[in-house]
Amino acid sequence: MSRAEAVEAFRAAHKKALKTYREDAEHGRWPYPQVLDDILEGKSIAGRIELGVMNVPSERIVGTVSAGRRSVFARDFMPLAEQNTEFGAKWITLCDAHLSDEGIRDPIRCYEYFGDFYVQEGNKRLSVLRYFDAPTVPASVLRVVPAFTDDPETRLYYEFLAFYHVSHTYAFRFTKPGSYQKLVAALGFEPDEVWTEEQRRRVLSAFTLFSDAAKRVKFPEGVGLSDAFLAWVSVYTLDDLNALSPETLLASLNASVTDADADVTVATEAEPSGKGLLSRIYDVMFLPTHLKAAFIHEYPPEESNWVRGHEQGRLAAQEALSDRVETRAYTVDAEHTADALFSEAVKDGAQVIFATTPSLIDACRRAAAAYPNVKILNCSVAMPYPGVRTYYSRIYETKFLAGAIAGACSHSDLLGYVASAPIFGVPASINAFSLGARLVNPRAVVKLRWSCTEPDPFSSLIKDGVDVISNHEWFAPEAAQPPYGLIRVQSDGTQESLAATFWNWGAFYEKLLSDILLGHWEDESANRSAAAINYWWGMQSGVIGVNPSEKLPEGVKALAETLKGAIMEGRLDPFRRVMSDQEGIVRNDGNRWLSPSEILHMDWLSDTVEGRIPGFSEILPFAQNSVRLLGVYRDDIPPVKDGPIL
Prior knowledge:
Blueprint: H1 3-26, E1 34-35, H2 36-40, E2 45-57, E3 61-64, H3 86-98, E4 108-113, E5 116-121, H4 123-131, E6 136-146, H5 152-167, H6 179-186, H7 197-214, H8 225-233, H9 240-243, H10 246-259, E7 263-267, H11 277-286, E8 291-297, H12 305-320, E9 325-331, H13 338-347, E10 352-355, H14 361-370, E11 375-378, E12 389-393, H15 395-409, E13 414-419, H16 426-440, E14 445-450, H17 457-463, E15 468-470, E16 486-489, E17 495-503, H18 505-518, H19 520-527, E18 531-537, E19 544-548, H20 554-568, E20 578-580, E21 586-589, H21 596-600, E22 609-610, H22 621-630
């Protein structure tokens, strides 16, 4: 390159600098690079660490160490100085060297503070490299470490320092606490495992490929490139960047970016069936008259009561809709992964796929990106993924009725409750049970035990002297036998069933498949396009209910029926009453209705409950996966690697 061409490059850079300067001045922005000395004034510093020479992300270099000659640069380090100055001549000489065989070889000298870099020496070298869009700049770096405080920015920076200790890269920048640890786990590293040079190169190469592909994706406000990469790599492997087709990769990127900042809309009741004339005309023209629905089970029905309930629900829905719906079940086994079963179901013509356990959510997300025309659902709650709808039920309504029955039938005023795990909706069920008991017996006290922390909580409660125990729900509408449901323990130790709260998945599947045939799925998509949709239906839908025992006194049966009718008609809300938690904080003064989100995300217990929500370290291994996925404190659980994806 001739010197004349270097002069033209300076003129173009100078023109760019003037434009940036004018735009900043017009919008009230500081038009020069930031000055670290000004930023550090009055700040407490914990220390300074020499990091040596590294490649610094060019976009992270935001200023200079001292005020010095900052006025010769615009904010983007393009030259404001004129060509006929000493500065202009040196810039042109450096530019000529950069584009010759000689090149710019000497690293700049800069300071790093809170992840940003400030030039001490070499600002003209940086300016030339910036003009030619160099993604990184070789630099000798001195890190300035701020004193630790509880300030969110400082805490996040200290999380980055721990991440840098193992990764030695500045490529990732997060704004949400815990993201660095989640990235380490998602990539298959142990928390303190130091990356090898080969591993670091592979991760950074993948991040570059991801960045190039993400240029075609519009990010929601507040979602950065690193946020999107974390969301993507939590579901896919780095090899998928090359293995996926361009169309599928783009779909997966769009889905992960949306998932990174999605809200969850809770749909508390089934859609109404009525439609206007125009909608009915549209339906006749475009809606399917027949559906193929696939059900993917993680376990064989004969090995899991939970799956058996869903399988019975599938068969019931198929029988009820036999003229319009065809269903088929697929089960994960040693020869068939969940991903393979989704592909097989789609090849078999499935238009709707239900995955019946929460742990299949990642497979659901991959399928939603790969098959955008297939409706994908997962049986779980509060999953912020717009491409996958989730479904569960408001079991707390039935627990409120069970609590009223228990309070009326107890001889000791001492009740027991066996909870499954501290996942979304479970604290609400515990509280509803205790409030139902107090409704009919102001002296009632509920002792709480967890099946996820001890092998036999039921026997533990009996030893504590309780005479009525709420045990786990039954997974089908037919009458359950102990140990399921509400059980009274007689003085001689015999057990008697009082009532059973149950799930009726057939009612859910029948109603939802009918709604799809009626076009309600598309209506919801149009009305809630930016949100993940969670079906959280109650007793009115028939998905859950209470079967009273034939031996239950008639007066108690009548009470339960009255309360049930009031709940189903919307006249009674278990939580619209004066409530305080175990810390004495008033959660409701009795004058307002709690929102579905407040109920679903309850992470506190009523002062009528003796017991507490167990910490994650107390959870037995068999339940830890569920708590990671759906736990009321899932965002605070330290991430673990799922297996190496490098």
